[in-house]
Amino acid sequence: MSGPGKTAQHPATPPARAQARTWPGVRWGVLSANAFVLIVNYGDRAAIGVAAPLIVKEFGFSPSTMGILMSAFAFTYAPASFFGGALADRFGPRKVMTVAVIWWSVFTAAAALCWNAASFLIQRLLFGLGEGPQGSVTARTMSNWFPRREYATAVGLTFAANPLGAAIGTPVVAGLLVWSGNNWRLTFVVLGAVGVLVAALWYVCVRDRPEEHPRVRAGELEHIVGGELGRPDEEATTAPPVGYYLRRPAVLATALAFFGFNWITFLFLSWYPTYLVQEHGVDLKSLAWAGSLPWIAAAVGTAVGGIFSDRIAKRLRAPYAVRKWAAVLGLALGGLLCFGITSVSGTVPSVAFFTVTMLLLYTSNAQFWALVQQYVHPARVGAVSGFVHFCANLAAIIAPAVTGFLVGELDSWGGAFSLAAGLAVLGAVVLAAVPRPTPLTASGSQPSASAPAGSRTD
């Protein structure tokens, strides 16, 4: 079937013309290409935080104004998360991601043309519109290319690239600033040019589904679609409308928990470099390592959380329960540790404490995406993942601005960190209390929209 809102039928085996030049494990190559895109995505996003002290000095922006500018991209980023996922369901992740990367890269470079707060505001809004789809498009790509028994591993390894991008971006941006004599405009131009090249790489290397890729072997395709917890067949049953899922308690609880997670993420992504400079006297050279270590830990936490989630879920044959409680535990521990960050004195102890916080917090990262994939029809994974990501990214709108107010008007870094910690713990508690959702069957089918939302899934 094909047409609006439908996914076209795909051949059961790769094209015969490709059999003489196939590769083993093409899905891991697709994952690597996707991870590379996310590294660039977060590196571009982290640049504003590293360059913020120089931008503030040049333009005389107050902390509140800078907080608003940091938040501005999320006003378009959040809705684009939802619409990007829906577009990936309809047109395929290959095209949607290509357009998104080119868009955000152009407007990354456009920061070099800004001359006042209003121009920065416009640039940040347009930048966020391009960055928004990456999460839900990634979720749809991994859902197309990996069986459910490997899905948390796939999203864990892929989304580990997000904090890794921040870890790489922080020293790269700081190094460019030092090398160029604090020319922050040059930094954004370089990042934008790299992004356009990455978009071309993505389009050449990736296909929407393994059935379409000329280098996929029949054995790998069988591994993806066959066996226990293989990739569901989205053509086997009619998908419920997206609105059906948006009313499910499990979806809403996952979105709230992800919101708490993202509040901490965007607080640190936007304000952590400034915190180190103001409270610990860190200079640009020291900022390269101090700003990177916590994000490296976050990347490790994301990858490890996904891998262990799959292994434990396979052993216990309880994928929903394992993903849920892994999310609750990681989010709660990360939130509780966040309460104590300002009580630690000295640059090295402060960075070490934050690094442990991020390591534990990010073990929950892959679980939010895996929870959605666990009980959503495969034809709706992009849109529903996008909705959850949209709700989570409301924190990207609010957190930097609220932090700017707390720091600038109330001079309270402790209040900023405590608020973030409380929201994360609240999200963990709500997710822990939510009833089990209506499960997908082994073939990927979904009960009717009138089925009870609280039936077992494991």
Q: Explain this structure to me?
A:
The protein has 458 residues and is mainly α. It contains 18 helices and no strands. Residues 1-21 and 448-457 have low confidence and may be disordered. The two termini are 31 Å apart.
Keywords, separated by commas or semicolons:
458 residues, mainly alpha, disordered N terminus, disordered C terminus
SSE order and pairing:
Blueprint: H1 26-59, H2 63-91, H3 93-109, H4 117-131, H5 134-145, H6 151-159, H7 161-179, H8 184-205, H9 218-225, H10 242-246, H11 249-280, H12 284-290, H13 293-316, H14 319-338, H15 347-361, H16 365-375, H17 381-408, H18 413-433
Helix pairs in contact: 1-5, 1-6, 1-7, 1-8, 1-11, 2-3, 2-4, 2-5, 2-17, 3-4, 3-5, 3-8, 5-6, 5-17, 6-13, 6-16, 7-12, 7-13, 11-14, 11-16, 11-17, 11-18, 13-14, 13-15, 14-15, 14-16, 14-18, 17-18
**Amount of helix:** over 70%
- Computed over alpha carbons, the radius of gyration is 21 Å
Low-confidence stretches: 1-21, 448-457
Globally, the shape reads globular
Strand content: under 5%
How many helices in DSSP terms? Answer: 18
Average pLDDT rating: 83
According to DSSP, the number of beta strands is 0
Structural class based on helices, strands and sheet pairing: mainly alpha
Major sheet summary line: none
- What pattern of helices and strands is seen along the backbone? HHHHHHHHHHHHHHHHHH
Q: What is the terminal-to-terminal distance?
A: 31 Å
